[in-house]
Amino acid sequence: QAAESFPPLRDEAAVRVLRGRMRGIQGHCNSCYMDAALFSLFSCTSVLDSMLFKPSLLCDRNVQSILRDEIVNPLRKTGFVQAGSVMHLREQLTDKGQCSSFTNAEKDPEEFLNLIMQQILGIEPLLRLQSGGQKEQDCYCYQIFLDKQEDLVVPDVQQLVERSFLSSDLKLVEIPSCFIIQMPRFGKEYKMFSKIIPSLELDITDLLLDSPRECCVCGDVATLECS
Question: Which of 11, 71, 92, 110: CA 20 to 30 A from 134?
Answer without folding.
Answer: 110
